[in-house]
Design a protein that fits this description.
Length: 256
């Protein structure tokens, strides 16, 4: 199995180092990851600046760009083969519910998926890297088992996985989940710069709002790995009929 490994915390982050070690036990793994922390960069691509690729002493390659940049250039110019799987992570912190919209970890995996390659994003629920080796073992095990069932050239899929920070023996079996929902983010934090200007810092993510049974929040709170298949089509299919009917009514109503 040939795996392209990326992340959003940067190529030196403990999460990608641990996951690389776990994956390299059974696969050919190429690391192409951001030089700097690119958390919350989602699917962003760098279109108005050049990207440079360098190789670190440990063999990892790093790019002065976003997670999606890394996967994009890997698949469109850097690699002379097509990987069987794109893996992203392990992220420093949860990517559950609404987090998936902002996540650079998910963005890197999604870039692979958009190129028709099966992809998996891995995140540890709590920040700080506690039990990262256990998380890497669990992630590696999942990649090996799932990878063995994917057919070359078959339909691509995109999986989002969150792993509780626990010793390996205390990790529950992976559960297939829907995404939960968070409350809106916390208030921005303001400070005064040395020049007297107001600085705004983006506030923390909101607490879980829908953490009911069947969600990623619920599964991980109970010690399980959460596994959510993601789609990319943002169409609100349930709302198509409402808007088709409502819009013609609104347009027929003139200026109101
Ligand atoms: Mn991150």
């Amino acid at each position: 199995m040939k795996i392209l490994l990326c992340n959003d915390d940067g190529y030196q982050a403990p999460g990608i180092v641990a996951l690389h070690a776990a994956l390299a036990a059974f696969a050919e793994v190429e690391v192409i990851a951001p030089e700097q922390n690119n958390s919350a960069k989602s699917n962003a691509l760098t279109l108005h600046a050049p990207l440079y690729v360098h190789r670190a002493p440990n063999g990892f390659r790093y790019v002065n760009g976003t997670p999606a940049d890394c996967v994009h250039i890997a698949l469109t110019g850097l690699l002379d083969y097509r990987p069987d799987l794109v893996v992203s992570g392990i992220n420093n912190g949860a990517n559950m519910g609404d987090d998936t919209i902002y996540s650079g970890t998910v963005g890197a995996a999604m870039e692979g998926y958009l190129f028709g390659i099966p992809a998996m994003a891995f995140s540890q629920v709590d920040k700080g890297w506690a039990h990262i080796d256990a998380a890497a073992q669990a992630a590696g095990d999942l990649v090996r088992r799932i990878g063995a069932h994917s057919t070359p050239g078959g339909q691509a899929w995109l999986l989002n996985v969150n792993i509780p920070n626990r010793p390996l023996a205390e990790l529950g079996a992976p559960k297939v989940c829907r995404l939960g929902r968070r409350h809106a983010a916390q208030k921005a934090i303001t400070m005064t710069s040395p020049h007297g200007e107001t600085m705004y810092w983006i506030g923390g993510a909101g607490a879980a709002m829908d953490a009911s049974e069947g969600t990623d929040f619920h599964a991980t709170a109970n010690g399980h790995l959460s596994l959510t298949p993601l789609s990319v089509d943002l169409t609100d299919h349930h709302a198509l009929a409402y808007w088709a009917q409502g819009l013609s009514h609104m347009l027929a109503g003139g200026e109101g």
